[in-house]
Amino acid sequence: MDENLSLGRMQITDDLSQLLAVLPESIRIALENHPKLSVLIEVVMDLGRYPEARFADGAEYLSDVAVTRADIQHCVDRLGLFSGDNRAGIERTLHRISCMRNRTDEIIGLTCRVGRAVYGTINMIRDLVETGKSILMLGRPGVGKTTALREIARVLADELGKRVVIIDTSNEIAGDGDIPHSAIGRARRMQVARPELQHQVMIEAVENHMPEVIVIDEIGTELEALAARTIAERGVQLVGTAHGNRLENLLKNPTLSDLIGGIQAVTLGDEEARRRSSQKTVLERKAPPTFEIAVEMHERHRWVVHDSVSEMVDTLLRGRQPTTQVRTVNEAGKVSIVRELPEPAKNGLMPAPNIPATNGGWRSSGRMSPMPSTLATNASQTTLEADLGFSQLLDQNWDSDEAMMSAGMATGITVGANGEELPLHVYPYGIGRDELEQVIEVLNLPVVLTKDMGSADAVLALRTHIKNHAKLRQISKVRQVPIYSVKSGTIPQITRTLRRMLHMDDPGIPEEADLRLFTQNASEDEVEALEEARLAVEQIVIPKGQPVELLPRSNAVRKMQHELVEHYHLKSTSFGEEPNRRLRIFPA
User: Fold this and answer.
1) Helices 555-567 and 524-536, interaxial angle, to 10°?
2) Distances in whole angstroms, Cα of residue 301 to Cα of each of 119, 304, 337, 342, 516
3) pLDDT range class, residue 516, cuts 50, 70, 90
4) How many CB atoms lie under 10 A from the CB of residue 524?
5) Apex CA 500: angle with CA 494 and CA 504, to 5°?
6) What are the φ and ψ backbone dihedral angles of 134, each rounded to 5 degrees?
7) Cα 71 from chain centroid (whole Å)
8) Which residue among 353, 366, 551, 572 is least crowded, i.e. fewest CB within 10 A of its CB?
9) Which option is the CATH number for 117-340: 1.25.40.10, 3.40.228.10, 3.40.50.720, 3.40.50.300?
10) Between the CA of residue 504 and those of 350, 357, 533, what are the distances in Å?
11) Helix (H) or strand (E) holding 568
12) What integer is the mean pLDDT of 84-95?
């Protein structure tokens, strides 16, 4: 779906002369004569280094003379006091000056950032602002979140006639000094004495000043997220920004996930789990989101809009990719709204196979193709030479399954699925059929186990059996059936090898565990222990890189937890004395 909205021309006010007046004369003159002054982002002054100007398309030095203490003091004397977060400003401007200090608290570096008021920048989401719903802006630093907040506050106050209060912690939205910048229009501004008091000022604004809209920049702590929920529940429209590029980042952030409803683990009944075709313990949204609309600012002129955060979060928690609304604006000021369909979703641990069946494959006729006459004539010699090369490769202490398959290729065996028709017929050797059938059934794999090696497309065997069974290798060479090795008969090892046989294995993508692989005929305690291990891996060990200790479990249950951790390509160990012996999981 495409739509077009007309945009007025954007107007930019930067008060750049007042920032230049603060800088030392040599730097000021260099900037005043610079051809790219209109796109200046910031000026960096570090003691003992050349002064640097950063523009939208790169950075360059302004002088070949290093910055001195006198240069830095020249700037500090013309600024107000630096606040607790080491920021200062220029009265009634949007410029922000941040300082770096040494161990004795002396200022040895300055970052002088240009503040610009851009009128018309939020016309891309003007229709969303007018709905009265709370809006959360996401994006990397420098993409324009604060600029958008400032313009939203002005539009709501001046053009829509609402009572707007801005919580201005660092004076970035309305500028430095007691009188706010004219870019916020009739909106009122409350300053925050110290950053850690921001949540208190948010509540104070609601209780004392009767706002219809509260604008807040950089919600970053749990207290601020809680204050935002309290404000939203009182019927006040919230417009704010938070740390994170995408909605998925907030889902993984336990501190800020409450902004989009929070996450909780829910145990389903047997009937509901079967209806959903999911495991019994699933993640669900805990509460209605604080912000009803989310806007991801990927670039200054390309924003992704989620007009229903609750539906978006529910979709992501179910493991599906949602349809996204992308809004862009061109140089002529015209907004284009496009809904992009998601990429084909991967079904949890095992994506749907996408292996085309082609004629001429191993079983295109339903029977094995005859051996070439030259190979048949010299079968014994070829097999002997192949066995010799294969054995030499096996004797080398190779630890990976890929090495084993490469050995087969080196001896003339075709390894892998070369367009064979599905289902794939597999001859297991030395591996329990119960475990194999469990993996095939749970993951719905196009694999059939066969007891006849003559009709098999591949052999699946334990590595130790391949090394010690020369006859198996001889038969596989003669029949041109590839052998896939498994280090052990555990569920993760079998799953990984079957994925590789079907070309479903992507080592660059971490696998999510389908607990159905490990919980067939398991007790409630065992299911609970496996779910504990899964949540620890997916919510702490992998995203945060921190080790985790689990609750004490019996030897049999710990063995199941070890197998589950192995599925994620992670290491775990048991420690402690019985009955308090427990599992410790380590990051990769």
Assistant:
1) 40
2) 14, 10, 12, 21, 45
3) low
4) 10
5) 110
6) -70, 140
7) 43
8) 366
9) 3.40.50.300
10) 8, 15, 25
11) none
12) 86
Measured distance CA(53)–CA(113) in Å, rounded: 10
In this structure, what token pair is assigned to residue 494?
A: 């079998």
H helix or E strand, kind and range, residue 255: none
21 burial via Cβ count (<10 Å: 0-12, 13-18, 19+): exposed
User: 9: exposed, middle or buried (C-beta count within 10 Å: 0-12, 13-18, 19+)?
Assistant: exposed
Residue type, 167: I
Architecture of the domain defined by 9-113: 2-Layer Sandwich (3.30)
pLDDT tens-place string over residues 153-211? 999 999 999 999 999 988 889 888 888 988 999 999 999 988 889 999 999 999 999 99
The pair of structure tokens assigned to 345 is 């979703």
User: Could you give the CA distance from residue 315 to residue 320 in angstroms, rounded to a whole number?
Assistant: 6
pLDDT at 526: 78
pLDDT at position 343: 59
pLDDT of residue 347: 38
For 235-241, what is the mean pLDDT? Answer: 94
Q: In angstroms, rounded to a whole number, what is the distance separating the alpha carbons of residues 406 and 465?
A: 18
- Beta-strand runs (E) in 48-95: 52-55, 58-61, 87-89
Asked whether the predicted pLDDT for residue 427 surpasses 70, the reply is: yes
Domain ranges of the chain: 9-113, 117-340, 373-430+450-490, 516-586
pLDDT of residue 491 exceeding 80: no
User: Cβ distance 117 to 111 under 8 Å?
Assistant: no
Single-letter amino acid code for the residue at 404: M
C-alpha–C-alpha distance, residues 531 and 281, integer Å: 7
Q: CA dist 406 to 425, 485, 503, Å?
A: 21, 11, 15
DSSP 169-202: SSSTTT-BSSSPPGGGTT-EEEE-SSGGGHHHHH
pLDDT of 378 above 60:
no
What's the rounded Cα separation, in Å, for the pair 16 and 168? Answer: 22
pLDDT tens column, 1-15 = 344 333 444 677 778
Q: 6 by DSSP, 3-state: which? A: strand
Is the CATH number of domain 516-586 3.30.1370.50? yes
* Residue-level pLDDT at 409: 36
For residue 381, pLDDT beyond 60 = no
Distance between CA atoms of residues 491 and 42, nearest Å: 56
Q: Of 25, 37, 114, 32, whose CA–CA distance to 78 is shortest? A: 25
CB atoms within 10 A of CB 20: 17
DSSP notation for 294-329: EEEEEETTEEEEES-HHHHHHHHHTT-PPPEEEEEE
Average pLDDT over residues 285-314: 91
How do strand 548-549 and strand 582-586 relate by DSSP bridges? Answer: antiparallel
Mean pLDDT (the chain) is: 78
Q: Are 93 and 20 in contact (CB under 8 A)?
A: no
99-101-105-107 Cα dihedral, nearest 10 degrees:
-60
Q: Considering only 372-381, 421-430, 485-494, which range has the smallest mean pLDDT?
A: 372-381
Task: Please count the residues of the chain.
Answer: 588
